[in-house]
Amino acid sequence: MSLRIFRSVAVIMCMMSSITLQSQSMEIEQKIEDLLSRMTLEEKVGQMNQYNGFWNTTGPAPKQGSAAEKYEHLEKGWVGSMLNVRGVEEVRAVQKIAVEKSRLGIPLIIGLDVVHGYKTISPIPLAEAASWDLEAIQHSAAMAAKEAAAAGVNWTFAPMVDISRDARWGRVMEGAGEDPFLGSKVAAARVRGFQGDDLSSPSTIAACAKHFAAYGFATGGRDYNTVDIGTATLYNMVLPPFKAASDAGVRTFMNGFNLLNGVPVTGHKLLQRDILKGEWGFDGFVVSDWRSIGEMVNHGYVPDGREAAKRAVEAGSDLDMESYHYLEELPALVRDGSVDEALIDDAVRRILRVKFELGLFDDPYRYCDEEREKTVVGSEEMEQAVLDMARKSIVLLKNEGDLLPLKQTGQTVALIGALADDPDSPLGSWRLAADDNSAITVRQAMAFYEGNTLVYEKGADVVVGPTSFVRDLETNTTDKSGFDAAVAAAKKADVAVLVLGEHAFQSGEARSRTELGLPGVQQELLEAVYAANSNVVLVLQNGRPLALPWAAENIPAIVEAWQLGSQSGHAIAQVLYGDYNPSGKLPVSFPRSVGQVPIYYNRHSTGRAAPFDPGTVFWSHYIDEENTPQYPFGYGLSYTDFEYSNLQLSAKTINRGEDLTVTVDLKNTGERAGREVVQLYLHDRYASVVRPVKELKGFELVELAPGESRTVAFTIDESLLSFYDRSGKQLVEAGLFDVMVGGSSVDVLGATFELKATGN
Ligand code: NOJ
């Protein structure tokens, strides 16, 4: 076939598939209207009501909602969705009631927090973001969707796309870090992964961009706390990943618990109706967060549940998760004329639309195939996917004297730390369907390297007593009885590998911290071992950035291994022993001290940035700490070295509407093959709304053999030069722009160009 014919065929096929999609969606709209016309008001409101299942709970248990009452409501058609019901048997049981007993037989949409894997657990989302590998992240989400869908789930409350600059906030583990550009790319990749090309496939599920919006800016990093941010931050930092998720076709949004500048986001009309459903044209539905409609009363925004329901529906919250106010209040509110039924119809249309798209009306048991569940859940395909993702997520923070990789033979390795032998903590928070204690530990995986002698000592526990997703844990702050044995083992060893950090449930929802050091006695353990043998490799296992200035100063090798999921130990051992060359880069700044938080690279310049009148005190700084982070955004080492040179711009000046090409040469100057994340940053030197000192605007993953070079090119178009003003209007302003390219946000080559006010 000639190229021209091939192109014409491709164009015709594209047109045909878009015509098919259009006619499918017209068909769905007709079916929705037909169904809606047959629904009573109670049945409509029922579609807007979501109940928790019967065992797992992921929020405070409400007073209402006995199992008997839930069954009764299911039969009456008063429940549109359930969450925390999983496994084919359980899903089938509730679906059967909805479909076979309720008058109209409308199927339920079944939601679960499939945040990083279903039963087979992938790295926590923050770790995955450290890979900067969008293909791998998309694949990871696709595998999670396939596994969850095989277990009856057809909707995940993920991705969380909240930008956060505050490591105290336990939920940084669930997002993609501090940057809206990276966050947007990751958001879109995750949505594509979960939803695939065909939502009705039994291997894909609906995704949910959450928490709309600004939840990651909770004051003091305390979960559920108030958010007060300016509109420049809202439009430029917070909203872009949500917009990216919407553009990628995400079918649902979740609002949140927080106030945004005095208004609960669950009742925020500007966000939900005007921006999301208006400006962005989102035609899926918005679910509230757990009881967040009712919590508008606690906030002091409304006097009671009746008013809460009214405000929430008016603002555009379509589905009530566990506050019961929609079911209890909306029918009366409509009947007495306080709420327009058109708002109810709009919400119901949105919810039904997603159910139709999922194929639930064609076959409500589409996700309920016992055979598929058996073959897919926990399969080798899943394990391979999470191992690949885990290796890609590791960030090498320090490697003085090339202590790493470790020699594979003839060495005695002292492996120390409770986390090295803990099969639970690598699963992180949010792994509702995983078996507890099911991760491969570092201890297990290092034992495969039989050329060395491995000696394990716990040293000290991280936490004591029972551990649980729903209770506060008790940190071990006193028991150092294992120190002596750990020190003795280190003394006799060639190298000591310490696995230290956080227990799985020391980060995640409701796990805010005021300190960012190693919890409990682990810092003392680290220092004691180091005093006995300075050949220490510190492997960090944590759900948030930690502030470890002593380790950064003294410990020769530091590996950031986050919470890497089911295959964690293998990924870590392969990196430690050099069977995998790490390539991750930090998606968040690591502070030197908790006092620097919030710390982030895309900050504004102060009027008194250093060096400002050198020798005087009158500039923006701390008197007891540096301004810079310990490890900056975008930072991460490799076992090989990369050299950047020859940064070139295609022009010194461009006009409005013109593109600019940036090229840079990258060479692998080391002795191993490696992968580098080449990062492009821009700085708009002056603007009507002041721009940050640098902002990520592009990145490329480049694999190079030893000695190999490549020229990497970026195209800068006008969208990359734009920003939002304080009313949310997108602007491009003429002026000077600095271009920076490098292997982290601080290690860059620079050039400058001018954007002229003239042009298209
Ligand atoms: C509360 C959390 O904030 C939200 O992210 C989660 O999806 C729901 N609980 C359901 O578990």
Small molecules held by this entry = 1-deoxynojirimycin
Q: How would a textbook summarize the main sheet? A: 6 strands, mixed
In DSSP terms, counting alpha (H) and pi (I) runs of 4 or more, how many helices? 21
CATH architecture group name of the domain at 390-596: 3-Layer(aba) Sandwich
3D shape:
globular
CATH topology of the domain at 390-596: Rossmann fold
Extended strand count? 28
Radius of gyration, taken over Cα atoms and rounded to an integer in Å: 27 Å
What is the secondary structure topology, with strand pairs?
Blueprint: H1 3-37, H2 41-47, E1 49-52, H3 67-76, E2 81-83, H4 88-101, E3 109-112, H5 125-129, H6 134-150, E4 155-156, H7 180-195, E5 208-209, H8 231-247, E6 252-254, E7 259-260, E8 263-264, H9 269-279, E9 285-287, H10 295-299, H11 305-315, E10 320-321, H12 325-335, H13 341-357, H14 370-376, H15 380-393, E11 395-399, E12 412-416, H16 442-446, E13 453-457, E14 463-464, E15 474-475, H17 483-492, E16 495-501, H18 522-532, E17 536-541, H19 549-554, E18 557-560, H20 568-576, E19 642-649, E20 653-656, E21 660-668, E22 674-684, E23 695-704, E24 709-716, H21 718-721, E25 723-724, E26 730-731, E27 735-742, E28 748-759
Parallel strand pairs: 1-2, 1-10, 2-3, 3-4, 5-6, 6-9, 12-13, 12-16, 16-17, 17-18, 20-28
Antiparallel strand pairs: 7-8, 11-18, 14-15, 19-21, 21-24, 22-23, 22-27, 25-26, 27-28
The structure holds 1-deoxynojirimycin.
